Automatic annotation (TrEMBL):
This is DNA/RNA-binding protein Alba-like domain-containing protein. Residues 153-165 have a biased composition (Acidic residues). Residues 60-124 form the DNA/RNA-binding protein Alba-like domain. GO terms for molecular function: nucleic acid binding. Residues 1-34, 148-184 are annotated as: Disordered.
Length: 218
């Protein structure tokens, strides 16, 4: 093969168009709503779905605050779509402070982007039994540790046999006379953020409203 044919072959291979990278697969719009953390909000999300484009955003211990803030504000400020956009922030009890921090940072970012107004709807919701039990264990962990340490610091010479016997007898009488203690319910906080008022949420029992407008949200 002469030099000219080698050159033609080389140029032909270079002239072939490069393969375009495949676009990333589209995100499943229902994946977040189908997660176990989102189950307590299913009824409310279903009621709002007909009129609003609601993005559920869970707050967990490993959630980067900046990443969640960007996702929330991007959804709220995106102009495309025929439905008003809403974000649901939710989490378990130990993440409540983190959830509030995300909401406050989102509102500041909306102000920076000259958003005409923002609306925040707060409500306590009941956690499922499994999530409630995990939250109680995590919240009371340090209390148990402190109790154990205080017990170790007690004087070993203190005679507690009589007091223990009295408390045991007292608890038996109480159990026989008093009614059983009702099961406790554990609640956490969920926050709806929007750039438009949501009358459906304002009319819901137990919902408090905050807004950047001077007048009450209507």
């Amino acid at each position: 093969m002469d030099h000219a044919s080698k050159k033609r072959k080389s140029s032909t291979s270079l002239d072939q168009p490069a393969k375009k990278p495949r676009p990333p697969p589209p995100a499943d719009a229902h994946a977040a709503q189908d997660s176990p953390l989102c189950q307590p909000h299913a009824a409310m999300l279903g009621a709002l779905a007909a009129k609003y484009d609601v993005l559920p955003a869970s707050i967990i211990s490993s959630t980067p605050i900046r990443k969640r803030v960007v996702r929330v504000t991007t959804h709220l400020l995106s102009p495309d779509g025929q439905k008003p956009r809403v974000v649901l922030l939710h989490g378990r009890v130990p993440e409540t402070c983190k959830l509030i921090t995300v909401a406050e940072m989102c509102k500041r970012l909306l102000y920076v982007h000259d958003c005409p107004a923002w609306y925040q709807y707060n409500q306590l919701f009941e956690l499922p039994p499994g999530d409630a039990e995990r939250g109680r264990r995590k919240a009371s962990k340090h209390v148990v540790e402190e109790t154990v340490l205080q017990g170790e610091e007690r004087d070993e010479e203190e005679d507690e046999d009589e007091s223990d016997a009295f408390e045991t007898m007292q608890s038996r009488f109480e159990n026989a006379v008093l009614p059983p203690t009702p099961d406790r319910t554990t609640k956490s906080l969920r926050i709806f953020l929007s750039t438009v008022p949501i009358p459906e949420l304002k009319a819901t029992d137990g919902v408090s409203v905050q807004t950047s407008e001077t007048s009450d949200a209507e």
